[in-house]
Amino acid sequence: MVSTGALRAHLLAVGLAGAVATSREVSLRSYRLFAARDPRVTIGLDPEGDWKQSDLIALMAEKCGVSADSRHTSGPDVIDPDRTLVALDAFAERLAEAARNRSSVLFGTGHPHRLLGFYAALADVLSAAGCTVLTPAHGSCVDITTRFGLRTYNLDYVRGVALVREPGARGAGRGTGAHTHSPLPVRTALAAAAEAGGPLPDLVVGDHGWVCGAGQLGFEAIGLGDTDDPALFVGEAEGRVSVVVPLDDAVRSDYYRPLTRYVLNRACLSQ
pLDDT for 221-246, tens place per residue? Predict the structure, then answer.
C-alpha cells in the first residue's frame, strides 16, 4: 500500500509532479499548435470549441497547475501534485467500475519505454478480475506520418497493452516499441474489432492518440497527460475523455510503480 502522503512525496521527489522536465517553451508551443488545429497536437480530437492559446493556458492551469500567466514563457513547467492525486482517484474509480462490470478494456501506449509496465500491471489485474483485455488488429500495419515522412509500423501487444514497432524490429513481445502520439493505432484496433463483430471496448486506457482517438469515436477513455498534451485535457473539458491524470509521462519506468500500487489499492484491486 502507498498512502496519499507518501505518493505525493514520491511525485515531487522523482519529477512526476512539481517542477517537471517538460519546459514552458515546449508547452506553449503545443498550445499554439493546438489553437491552429495542427493534427500533430490534436492527436485525433476534433475540438468543438474555438480554443485560443489563452484559453488553453487557462485550462491547463486549472487541470494541471501550470502558470496561468501568459508572460511566463521559459523555465520548467509545473504540475500540482494535489491535482495529480485527485485525478488518480478518479482514474482508480473507473478501473474499479470496469472490474465490477467485468468490462471489455483496451490498453494502448505511445510511450512503451516508460509506461508499458504501468498499463500492463493494470491489465493483469483487470483480467484476473474477469475483464476481457482486448487485443484487436494484432500484427496489422499502421501508416503514420512522422517528421521523417510516412512510416509503416506494426501493431503489437505486450501483456495486453498495444504499442507500435517498426517492421522487423527485434524484441517482439517486449516493450521496445516506437514513441508515437498518433491516433491511427487506436483507430486501426477499433476498426478491426468492429469488423470482427466485437467485442468493442467499454473502456480505453492509455495516453496521447489512444485516449483522444478513442474518445473522439465515442468510446469511454481515461489516461495520462503531460503539460504539453492539451488535447487530452480539452477532450476532458468537452466531455469526450472521462479522466486525465496530469503528470510527467517520460520519467524512468520504475518511477510509475508506486502509482500502480496506489491506483490498485484505491480501486480495491490490490493483489
Answer: 999 999 999 999 999 999 999 999 99
Q: How many C-beta atoms lie closer than 10 Å to residue 261's C-beta?
A: 15
Is pTM, for the whole model, over 0.85?
A: yes
What gap in Å lies between CA 41 and CA 46, rounded to an integer? 11
Instruction: State the SS3 of the chain.
Output: CCCHHHHHHHHHHHCCCEEEEEEHHHHHHHHHHHHCCCHHHHCCCCCCCCCCHHHHHHHHHHHCCCCCCCCCCCCEEEECHHHHHHHHHHHHHHHHHHHHHCCEEEEECCCHHHHHHHHHHHHHHHHHCCCEECCCCCCCEEEEEECCEEEEEEEEEECCEEEEECCCCCCCCCCCCCCCCCCHHHHHHHHHHHHCCCCCCCEEEEEHHHHHHHHHCCCCEEEEECCCCHHHHHHHHCCCCCEEEECCCCCCHHHHHHHHHHHHHHCCCCC
